[in-house]
């Protein structure tokens, strides 16, 4: 049977597939042999090898078990590199620093930020993307897992100070069933009670007093250096030059000063939880 030639330089997915085939053939396995060991169909194995289907976390872990691969160059690691490569430019680097930051400042528009999402809210967002055909069901599971990983990275002996300002649209946009939003509102109220957090809501009527129109993230690292990440629908930008971040931090402080207090913001959330407009 003719075999497709693979070009590992074509893309990270192609390199993944080429390595999968190389290891399989080195062991004298057919695609059916690998499929049986990984508990997938041979059609699925063929699609991953040829780049017709992107690898998933579950598939990668199954491949590592089938080949007995441990250490640094695992398929799971390669999958994570591919997944990060599909994110907006700068975001993977931001996430790498987020888990070590001493202070985190967030401004979000439209959706609750990942660090504050409940699993149900994160799942509803991912399932919505599946229904739109933007991602597969397995990729949806991986998105939810990434949210959990980011949240887990902040649970440490000395947790970071976290300042969050949510545009009112984050609260007004329904995600999932009403019960999902109720649980999310309750999660926000719990977050505000933590000793290392401040939560504020920037209402629509702030108008031009709101200095940002797009999501913004600012990190203060243990050495007091500053980093920021900002994004639009099509691109992201990670900034490591502290002198360039200072004006953004100043604007963020102005946003906090103009926004209602945490007590007022939590009261707004509580009204929404009770079903009051």
Explain the layout of strands and helices.
Blueprint: H1 12-26, H2 31-38, H3 42-49, H4 57-67, H5 75-85, H6 91-98, E1 103-108, H7 119-131, H8 137-152, E2 161-167, H9 169-172, H10 178-193, E3 197-202, E4 216-220, E5 226-231, E6 236-239, H11 242-258, H12 262-273
Parallel strand pairs: 1-2, 2-3
Antiparallel strand pairs: 1-4, 4-5, 5-6
Helix pairs in contact: 2-3, 4-5, 7-8, 10-12
Pfam family, one: DUF5753
InterPro entries: Cro/C1-type_HTH, DUF5753, Lambda_DNA-bd_dom_sf
Protein name: Helix-turn-helix transcriptional regulator
Please supply descriptive tags for the structure shown above.
Endonuclease, Chain A, alpha/beta, Helix-turn-helix transcriptional regulator, 434 Repressor (Amino-terminal Domain), 277 residues, 2 domains
CATH architecture annotation name of the largest domain: 2-Layer Sandwich
**What is the percentage of strand-forming residues?**
5-15%
- Run of helices and strands: HHHHHHEHHEHHEEEEHH
Helical content band: 40-55%
Could you please say which CATH topology of the largest domain applies here? Endonuclease, Chain A
Oligomer: single chain
> How many helix segments?
12
Q: Tell how many strands the DSSP assignment holds.
A: 6
Tell me, briefly, the overall form: elongated
The largest pleated sheet is described as: 6 strands, mixed
State the secondary-structure class: alpha/beta
The count of domains is 2
Distance between the termini: 66 Å
Protein name: Helix-turn-helix transcriptional regulator
Pfam family, one: HTH_31
InterPro entries: Cro/C1-type_HTH (IPR001387), DUF5753 (IPR043917), Lambda_DNA-bd_dom_sf (IPR010982)
């Amino acid at each position: 049977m003719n075999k497709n030639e693979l070009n590992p330089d074509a893309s990270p997915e192609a390199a993944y597939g080429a390595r999968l085939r190389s290891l399989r053939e080195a062991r004298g396995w057919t695609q059916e042999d690998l499929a049986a060991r990984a508990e997938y169909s041979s059609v699925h194995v063929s699609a991953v090898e040829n780049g017709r289907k992107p690898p998933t976390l579950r598939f990668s872990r199954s491949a590592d078990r089938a080949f007995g691969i441990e250490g640094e160059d695992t398929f799971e690691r390669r999958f994570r590199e591919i997944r990060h490569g599909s994110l907006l430019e700068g975001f993977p680097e931001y996430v790498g620093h987020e888990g070590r930051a001493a202070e985190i400042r967030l401004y979000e528009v439209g959706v609750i930020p990942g660090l504050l999402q409940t699993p149900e809210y994160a799942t509803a967002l991912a399932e919505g993307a599946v229904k739109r055909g933007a991602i597969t069901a397995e990729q949806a599971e991986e998105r939810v897992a990434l949210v959990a990983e980011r949240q887990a990275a902040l649970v440490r002996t000395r947790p970071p100070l976290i300042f969050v300002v949510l545009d009112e649209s984050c609260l007004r946009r329904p995600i999932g069933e009403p019960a999902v939003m109720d649980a999310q509102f309750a999660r926000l109220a719990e977050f505000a009670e933590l000793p290392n957090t401040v939560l504020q809501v920037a209402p629509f009527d702030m108008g031009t007093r709101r200095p940002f129109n797009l999501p913004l993230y600012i990190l203060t690292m243990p050495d007091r250096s500053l980093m920021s990440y900002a994004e639009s629908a099509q691109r992201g930008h990670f900034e490591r030059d502290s002198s360039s971040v200072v004006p953004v931090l100043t604007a963020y402080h102005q946003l906090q000063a103009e926004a209602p207090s945490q007590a007022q913001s939590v009261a707004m959330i509580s009204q929404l939880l009770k079903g009051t407009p």
